Fold AAA family ATPase.
Amino acid sequence: MVPVSTPTLSPEQEALFRLIEDTREHVFVTGRAGTGKSTLLQHLAWNTHKQIAVCAPTGVAALNVEGQTIHSLFRLPIGLIADSEIEQSEPARKIMNAIDTLVIDEISMVNADLMDAIDRSLRQARRRRAEPFGGVQIVMFGDPYQLSPVPPRGDELRYIQDHYRSFWFFDAQVWAGPRADRGAIRSDGLLDLGRVGAPLHIRELRDIHRQSDPAFKAMLNAVRHGIVTAEIADALNTMGARTPPEPVDGEPPIITLATRNDIVNRINQRHLDALTGPVQTARAEISGDFGRGDTYPAEPELQLKVGAQVMFLRNDIAGYSGDGPRWVNGSIGTVTRIAGGSVRVELDGEEHDVEPTVWERFRYAYDPGSRKLTRDIVAEFTQFPLRLAWAVTIHKSQGKTYDRAIVDLGSGAFAPGQTYVALSRLTSLEGLYLSRPLRPSDILVDRDVRRFMAAVRAAAE
Ligand SMILES: Nc1ncnc2c1ncn2[C@@H]1O[C@H](COP(=O)(O)OP(=O)(O)OP(=O)(O)O)[C@@H](O)[C@H]1O
Ligand SMILES: [Mg+2]
């Protein structure tokens, strides 16, 4: 596999890389959007000398970091796990015994129950029941001010309420002792979340690489913390609430970030219908077990027309040859030709012939011969790395970077962090188009995140 080229790490990223590499401490790497968390994770995956397994809570997030989903890595049942027996196959046990470090991306979407199941699985498999995570180092990446776990309902909700302070990963029992002990700050500045739990090093990356304008960074920070003053709202609305320009030939088109799937599909379909010319459908080739439809990395049936606005779903592989990538995950262009098994896409004034690519679903296995973990391909999904991109959901835009976007909050943001995720995708305020002015009710901050991060900041002072 080709290594992903990442930017040279900044000093604070480098320091964290060393902390992870040179110690066995559990680390939670957090920081505002665009501080280079994912960049650091990629660098770690390619440069560590440890035996690591990389995983993530959702299929899409796992594909992003070329890892496995948490559920498949640990062979966990779907839904609440609570204190039910965890069945482990021999291969799963071997994997858990082979790793030094478990890396989890998008940790904000992991709930407390799952965090504790990971702990229990590792203790059980490694037969080190008294040690948190059976002695494995846990390294987590994410920003709790962005999108949260799926909220539990019904019996699950009742269970969580009875056993946990909140459903967030940071309130898992493994980190926590008796409730009264929570948030104790030790003399060395470490936030010790409890007497019997594992100590967790929380490190915040501070330098933002995605945006450079200090005024825009300050506005985003206010949205993140739910402290938007009338003045800030005014500045965002005066600048942002305006009609987007008509598409200009040679200029990249503008994407809409919307709250719900139905809005996104409607916008994409409306634009596709408005184009003259025939629709062409590209069917994905799927081999092996690629899971259910909602875990597909691209459309199983991609409908395209000449003139369609599309987004790339992967980085350009051919770019590693030396000229630099022709596109990256998130680049937006226009279809100019569909023929002969390829789709021609105009991007920044240049045309490229795009071929189908293969997404590989990985599974870790243990090789007793070399006593090393191997990563096997268990399924493949072949499709053009493109999707219609007049609009995407804000949830799907998490992690991405855009120069220009229309933010459509429709009838209102409904999840904590949603508006922050949308606005923080933009590299500058000049690229922001709001389809309607922001309302105070669009800005939602989770109460438990506020509480946890306040304790983190107090510990850092
Ligand atoms: N050390 C660096 N030097 C230059 N550019 C960097 C550096 N680190 C990250 N970047 C760039 O900054 C942008 C944001 O980085 P990245 O996506 O890793 O941030 P993130 O913290 O994961 O953001 P989010 O919370 O939105 O997922 C990317 O375009 C990335 O290439
Ligand atoms: Mg990221």
In short: The chain has two domains: 11-207, 214-356+384-444.
